[in-house]
Each structure stands twice: as C-alpha cells, then as structure tokens.
Design brief:
By secondary structure, this protein is α/β, with parallel strands linked by helices. The chain has 9 helices and 5 strands, in the order βαβαααβαβαααβα. It has one domain: P-loop containing nucleotide triphosphate hydrolases (Rossmann fold, 3-Layer(aba) Sandwich), CATH 3.40.50.300. It has a 5-stranded parallel beta sheet. It binds adenosine monophosphate.
C-alpha cells in the first residue's frame, strides 16, 4: 500500500503528476483544493465557508480541512492507498493526518517535494488561469499571496516529514514524463 504526500508550491505540477500516479498505482486522489472547489460548485455550507479564504489565496482553517479529509478517508473502502495533493499544508494538518491514518492502521510511505523556481511557478499559474477559470490563478497579487503563504505556513511541513526520513525532493522542471519517472523511482523504493 502506498500513501504518498505530493508536496510543493502552487504551480509545481502536483495535480498533473497526481493524475498519472493514480493510474499507475491505483490510488485514491485526495486533493483538498479540488474537494473545496467541488463544494463551492455545489454551493454547500463548507464551500461557502472556504470561498472567502480561497479567493484571497489564504489557507482555510485547519479544523475545516482536517474534518473534510477525515470524511473522505472514512468514506473510502478498500483503497490501495492514497495520494495527498495540496494537503497537509500546515504542521498541524500533518500531525492530524498521521493520527487519522494510524486510527485506520495506515501510515505515510513517502513525501515527494516538487522543487520549481518561483518565476516558473508564476508563469505556469498565469498560463493555467487562462483556462482553469480559477479566480486565484488570474490575479498577480493573489498568486503572490499563495506563494508567500506556501513559504511561511506550508514549507515547515517538509521538515516534519524529513524528521521521519520520508522526504525526497524532485526537480519539477522538464518534461511531464521525465519528472514522473523520477517520482515513480522514489515511490517504488519507499515500500
Ligand atoms: P490548491 O488547488 O491546492 O491550490 O488549493 C486552492 C485553495 O484551496 C488554497 O489557496 C486554499 O485557500 C485552499 N486549500 C486547499 N488545500 C488546503 C489545505 N490543505 N489547507 C488550507 N487551505 C487549503
């Protein structure tokens, strides 16, 4: 069973690589950003709550995110493993995830951190904004906020997994398949 944390700043390619990993390893994709967008689209209470944070590029409060992930894990039967994309984004979320997995007799196998220079991230997000329809992809100030929030609040999560010897950095610039090969090597060695 593989439980993978795919880590990196906005625009690092987590979504793209997750799609390929899900197919190769038959994993359940837990992207908290996608889950929030789904709630938003359906106009749920959770979606309305998350909207004001998402629109500004800020993090949704930990307890809201953790509750949503807990529900998703519990409602998934017979999974071959999970890929966590865009979660955990704070050390409190990482601790909560370890506790949730332990309750279900699981643990994180590895964290893969995609390393991409800031200028490349900004270009990729702006390019994605042309088709994603995401408010937070289309405005320079919001993009800058998301990168700042990543550096200040999310980067310490890498240290959390490093302390457990689970962190591997992968250079995230190049061809999609080339990056995918590097990621699968790490996953295969993490069993
Ligand atoms: P993403 O699609 O991962 O870039 O997430 C889009 C937005 O959803 C973020 O800018 C946050 O506002 C919110 N979000 C997604 N995942 C999390 C998380 N793990 N913790 C807090 N907020 C999150």
């Amino acid at each position: 069973m593989h439980n993978i944390v795919l880590f990196g700043p906005p625009g690092a390619g987590k979504g793209t690589q997750s799609e390929k990993l899900i197919l190769k390893y038959n994993l359940i994709h837990i992207s908290t950003g996608d889950l929030f967008r789904k709630h938003l689209g359906e106009g749920t209470e959770l979606g309305n709550l998350a909207k004001k944070y998402m629109d500004e590029g800020n993090l949704v409060p930990d307890e809201v995110v953790i509750g949503m992930v807990d529900d998703k894990i519990k409602s998934t039967k017979d999974a071959n493993g999970f890929i966590f994309d865009g979660f955990p984004r704070t050390v409190a979320q990482a601790e909560a995830l370890d506790a949730l997995l332990e309750e279900n007799n699981m643990k994180i196998s590895c964290m893969i951190a995609l390393d991409v220079p800031e200028e490349v991230l900004k270009e990729r997000i702006k390019e994605r904004g042309k088709t994603s329809g995401r408010v937070d992809d289309q405005n320079e100030q919001k993009i800058n906020t998301r990168i700042r929030v990543y550096l200040e609040e999310t980067l310490p999560v890498a240290g959390y997994y490093q302390a457990q010897n689970k962190l591997t950095k992968v250079h995230g610039v190049g061809g999609i398949d080339e990056i995918f090969q590097k990621i699968t090597k790490v996953v295969d060695e993490s069993i």
